[in-house]
Amino acid sequence: MATATLTDVACPFCGLGCDDLTLDVSGETLAASGGACVRAKLAFQKIASTPADAPHSWVEGKPVSLDQAMARVMDLIAPSKAPLFGGLATDVLGMRGLMELADRTGALLDHMNSEAKLRNLRSVQDAGWITTTLSEVRNRADVIVCFGTDVSARFPRFFERCVWVEEPMFLKDSEHRQVIIIGQPKDLAGATSPKGRVPEVISLSPDRLAEAAALMRGLVAGSLPPQIQTDLPLEALKSVAERLKQAHYGVIVWAAADLDWSHADLTVQALTGMVGTLNITTRCSGLPLGGSDGDFSSDAVMLWQTGYPFRTSLASGTGHYDPVMHSTQRVLHEDEADLLLWVAGLDPDRTQVPNTQSASGKHCPMIALTSAGAPLIQEAMVQITVATPAVDTHGYFFRADKIVSLPLRKAIQRSYPTVAEFAHRVMAGLGEKAC
Ligand code: SF4
Fold first, then answer.
1. How far is Cα 28 from Cα 3, in angstroms, rounded to an integer?
2. Domains of the chain from N-terminus onward
3. 16 CB under 6 A from ligand 1?
4. CB of 9 closer than 6 A to ligand 1?
């Protein structure tokens, strides 16, 4: 049995894209060590522990050969007049393949994380923003405010990789950084410094965060009336505003996925407006964390190739972007798609699928492409296991700050098709040359 140890492996299971993992390969089994967090260890183990000879294609829940599954795929795709490509959890190479197929079939493209991404995008469209990179945080940030986001829960090694580092280039040490969390973190272990200094927490429930962001913006700008009445912890928030003003390089961190309330883009705008004001007298940046489920990777490919982000339809032969009308859930609810190709080809635990039943009770047929280790999707007419980048195939992954595209390496040999191979096979079946 072949054994190998791969070092400096990049991980695609959250947007941080840590690239210091060690993978011990023994035949078809994988064990992640080195810097791997629990989520990464479980994901690598789950994907790799599916035996190569286990069923990997299903039609209506019954195991079939890949050829039989592809024949059913062609029966569904060939007559489709309004296909919807959703999920889009894949890497750059997978998304390039899907874009070719979308171009050929006139599909609408929407990612599983679009709703969260739009909270940031609307804010940028309205007012722009100043953001930074993970490396800048690592080397320069002296005051870090995590707003409304349980950073460690979404990005398990954020503090280890970006805050409590041994030799920040432009700070004496990391221990003296100030970490302030506004919200309700479940676990402070990651945010606690190596010498045991726990972060300051201003505990606010999610329904108070929009108000808190607006208040902080006013405090930083000095634009509030002197006798302001609020039941928010005003003195604590004043202190945070003051420390951001005194900081050499403040950073405000959030994950839009956690700002899950109506018009949360206005909260993002309050945070980015505060950053703008702070930059009149000192230096401050936002760090909108994202990139999980390949959302930045897929979005980058869409932008290169069409000039538009997710929620773009290629039905007319050119890109038509509509962030509201082209939402997966709305399109399915209104019965505007006749086929859903759902791609969940990274984390096998990201198994939620949209409701495919329209308001009139009709079900949109679904083809699902999933990683090894993912459960059977009951609603899927066809489900095919695809190669997972960083396990069964190589690829490229954009991390949370969109600056770095990380190479993902193939670790084990199995016969699953890649997402791009699936797309090319469909195009060959449609009898047209790939674009
Ligand atoms: S923090 Fe994210 S990228 Fe890093 S090892 Fe864990 S899951 Fe992978």
1. 9
2. 55-113+293-430 (3.40.50.740), 116-289 (3.40.228.10)
3. yes
4. no
